Records
---
Amino acid sequence: MTFGIIGNLEKAGLKEAVTLFVKGLRKSGMSFCLQNEIAEILGGKEQFPFASSEKCIDRADMVVAFGGDGTILAVARLVGARQIPILGVNLGKLGFLADVSPQNMEQAIEDIVAGKYIVEDRLVLQATSPARLGKVYYGVNDLVISRSHSPRIIDAEMYIDGAFAVTYRGDGLIVSTPTGSTAYALSSGGPIVTPTTHVIGITPISPHTLSGRPIVIPDKSTVRVIVRSHIEEILFSTDGQTEEFFNPPVELEIRKASHSLRLVRRVGSSYFDVLRAKLLWGQDARSQ
């Protein structure tokens, strides 16, 4: 097995974590490819096999992303439709998607080399717009339509499988995957959804009416959103990392992508363990 190693160069502890991981791979006889910049950080390219991030991914049977959740999302975009499994090593604060920490890395390497892991297929969303013909936007967490810099609310008409559903009035709309249910959608009042559930979540941002409630629909559905508001521009973002500006009226069609995110999870821990550890789910301050 060949591992492609990519990381967030701004994260503290990157050098130490990658050094430990590479040491474990060499001890196990595994091959690997380091991102150019990481090879330089580790003391010089002459000591390690290296290539650009894209070429490392091309060579890899598994991609290892060192950083936080944002790093994993960025790596997922690079992997795209190639369906290469991604293992996350958490060097950030929350690390909701990452299954390995520097503290348990040695055991994690042993488990992975021994085949003691599972690969979860996570839903990816795609969006298209008549205003950007030929361009496809992808989101692992969410696709967000918002009012950009304007202080005015927007009206977002929503159609599900061609049938008019509702017009949301407010700051915008989040269309999320189950993976993204614990991201922006959660902070806007959306439900927590277990990550392998086959659904799409739709959550209004700061709705102007009490009746503007989130909804969960099957992932086979097609969502069409039309914004006709009289403001200068609408901001459309994917996973909080890429941005596109549109002049109203704006129409976007959102559906399940043909590929998924393949996320490596170690055997022995459940999604609910992650919820309790990362989000303090279910904790009651009165019992502390």
Note: The chain has two domains: 2-122+260-287, 125-256.
---
Amino acid sequence: MKVVSVLKSGGDFNQEDVRKLKSMCERFVDCEFYCLTDVKIDGVNTIPLEHNWKGWWSKMELFRPDLFDEQVLYLDLDTVIVGDFSHFYDFTGLAMLNDQLHKQYYGSGVMMFNPRRNSGVYEEFKKNPRKHMNKYHRGGDQYFIQDTIGGIHGFQELFPNQLYSYKFNLCKTKSGEGFKGVPNTAKIVFFHGKPRPKEVNYLGY
């Protein structure tokens, strides 16, 4: 069972965030944890990024055909693991988060896919990175993935009541006030924007 994350230096996250995510995953499942990155991370299996694509665009390298020829689970570094998610691997297609506001869109904070089988995402992006970055400067990598490849399944539809947005599902306000607690059925709590997991102490992060 493989779990993959990405750390591009110069952003909001650092090596300690990678180690924290690895520790949370290993607390609940027997997995091999990897991080695509341009820095050294002690105690973590790292895979060098091949391109200097800025910010979240480094996630396009997740779809390199040379990485893995099997299903992997990708997690953003602002993800909190709260339960055993090993049954996710029973699904063998492409899954992304259902957008919290617009159900026709998907989010890339949590993804399941086979890098080699879905390598068209990487191959198309590297043809003209600047063009795609400009076109998707608002929607970002997740909109590019959605427009490039079909057959996407919504994670929350595949696994009801197991993935929750901290901001939209677990708080009374969008600013993160009035935390309601984590349901017993939850496996993953995903953050997007502010606050970051390290900025709250409700989940034992």
Note: Residues 15-28 form the longest helix (14 residues).
